[in-house]
Design brief:
The protein starts with 16 loop residues before the first strand and ends in a 6-residue tail after the last strand. The chain is built from 5 helices and 9 strands, in the order E-H-E-E-H-H-E-H-E-E-H-E-E-E.
């Protein structure tokens, strides 16, 4: 993967809710933003939980505080994409909040990593393909300048 750090692929800004947000409003927020979960933050903006579609369907409660998952694993902007991929696969997380100085700055989901895998750049000099959100600074094969890379459209199913 061409992207090395979470900061390069995370989604930001992040839609959040507070602990007192009614579950019906959370469901509407998820639907409107086409997301599957939302971090719950306190008054200082620190992540205190996460409410997913599953939480809304499987747990009884009227507010985010009553249905949220409180055991939230987070990463920093400098965490490697490979380490996050392991969390998403091995621990079966759907998304991981990204913190900087204890504050929420982004979120990485499975779809962010899949988008990275689906983006391929081709060197205009030697034809070397490289996957990543952005072209590399230099070609790993011929070492030419990264400005020679062109985005290669991926056929469906690859």
């Amino acid at each position: 993967m061409a992207a090395d750090r979470v900061a390069e692929i995370m989604s930001a800004p992040v839609v959040t809710v507070t602990g007192d947000r009614p579950t019906g409003e959370i469901a509407e927020t998820l639907r409107r933003h086409r997301i599957r979960a939302v971090p719950v933050v306190d008054e200082a903006g620190a992540v205190v939980g996460l409410v997913s579609e599953y939480d809304l369907m499987a747990k009884a409660g009227a507010t985010a505080r009553e249905v949220m998952t409180t055991a939230v694993v987070s990463v920093t902007e400098d965490t490697s994409v490979d380490d996050v991929r392991h969390l998403l696969v091995d621990r079966r997380f759907g998304r991981v909040p990204v913190l900087s100085g204890g504050r929420l700055v982004g979120i990485v989901s499975r779809s962010d990593v899949v988008a990275l895998l689906a983006t391929e750049w081709v060197c205009g000099s030697c034809g070397e393909p490289v996957r990543g959100e952005r072209p590399p600074e230099t070609c790993p094969k011929c070492l030419c300048d990264g400005e020679r890379f062109a985005l290669q459209e991926q056929p469906p199913g690859t």
